[in-house]
Amino acid sequence: MRGFLLSIVLLFSVTAFAQKGGKKPASGYDIIHPFKNGIAKVEKDGKQGFINEAGEEFVPVKYDQIYPWEKGRAKVEIAGKYGFINEAGEEYIPVKYDFIGPFKNGLAIVSLNGRRGLINEAGEEVVTLQ
Questions:
Q1: Is this prediction's pTM over 0.85?
Q2: Beta-carbon-side half-sphere exposure of residue 80 (alpha carbons within 13 Å)
């Protein structure tokens, strides 16, 4: 019994150490970052995603970069193209733009193939790309 309890404690300690120290966890991810607000960024083969506390991947590990969450959304990047995901992990602004600036007064400058325009926070182009 004592050996079983010791094994359980060691298992949890190794998992916690891996999460805090950025070591390779046994879950199949290369890195599990510390949980914050019930979610953790995960990395595998150079791609990033997110899991919840149950270990469910709600943002698929397919992004080259996921930028910090802000107002319930995060900018994401794949192969130099940008878009946004919401807290459910859905791409509500498609990953297609060459550039997306920060939202100010509900609008962001976007660029695609040398043309610029404005999108609102819902991802709708309010000033057509020109």
A1: no
A2: 4
pLDDT per position as a tens digit, 93-121: 999 999 999 999 999 999 999 999 999 99
Whether domain 2-98 has CATH 2.20.25: the reply is yes
**Intra-chain end-to-end CA distance of the chain, in Å:** 71
Give the span between the Cα atoms of 46 and 104, in whole angstroms.
31
Which of 101-110's residues contact partners 24+ apart within 8 Å by CB, and which partners? 103/71
- C-alpha distances out from residue 78 to 22, 55, 65, 105, 119, Å: 23, 23, 7, 26, 19
Structure tokens, 75: 């900018």
